[in-house]
Amino acid sequence: MSWKDKMRHWRQRLAAVDWYLVSGLAFLLLVISAFSLSALRLHDLLGDAEALPIESVIIKGDRQYTSDAEIQAALQSLMRRSFFSADVNQVQEALEELPWVYQASVRRKWPARLKVFLQEQQPVAHWNGDKWLNEHGQVFEAPDKEGIDQLPQLAGPDAMAKDVLTSYRQIRELLQINGFGLKSLSLNARHAWRAVLDNGVMLELGREDKMARIQRFINVYPVLAKQPNKVARVDLRYDTGLAVGWDDAQQESR
């Protein structure tokens, strides 16, 4: 095939090309390339902490035990990210790891702030000496803080914490109606109950019928209070009757 024939052949093939379609495809590829480049640049910009830094964190909610310094320390590493790349779930988890924080919710607030709502633990009792119980009967560990009111001492297996708190509230209500205060309540490994009143009297309640036994103590206490010695301990683990231990006495009376 001569050179002229080759040129004629290519001109015929080019003439047969749908240039409208080709130009459309070329324009589409150009648009896709432009969008891809813009998306890549936008991704880099949104992840750039220097270009879009988190300017501030707004903390809402009543706080008694969690300081600004503790919050700042918990979020220090997370604040190095940009406003858009910061993971609000990680921020929430970091705050909820603070000992006195019960729950945290976090959301972004345009243009460059995070808004945080904190709910602190509400302690209602000491638990097993070095822990706390919150209002839901959940055990948590946290350092002691000034300003916490005098709280009762509760004890027992952690799995029974909610039951102990419920029983404490029931017994306290019954005692308060009759002029007594409840200082502590414990449940041992054998599920036997022991209570200590504000006046120092210890009540052995056993495993069953603890409310009925509390009522038996209330009924008999006026007689016990008239005795010359002070009541130290009352054992109510009897189907009927009780045993009394007196201050400065070597023997119990029944």
UniProtKB/TrEMBL annotation:
Keywords: Cell cycle, Cell division, Cell inner membrane, Cell membrane, Membrane, Transmembrane, Transmembrane helix. Signal peptide: none annotated. Pfam families: FtsQ_DivIB_C, POTRA_1. It is found in: Cell inner membrane; Membrane. It is a single-pass type II membrane protein. Residues 52-121 form the POTRA domain. The keyword Zinc-finger does not apply. Gene3D superfamilies: Cell division protein FtsQ/DivIB, membrane protein fhac. The keyword Cell division applies. It comes from the Bacteria. Essential cell division protein. May link together the upstream cell division proteins, which are predominantly cytoplasmic, with the downstream cell division proteins, which are predominantly periplasmic. May control correct divisome assembly. Part of a complex composed of FtsB, FtsL and FtsQ. This is Cell division protein FtsQ. The lineage of its organism: Bacteria, Pseudomonadati, Pseudomonadota, Gammaproteobacteria, Alteromonadales. The gene is ftsQ.
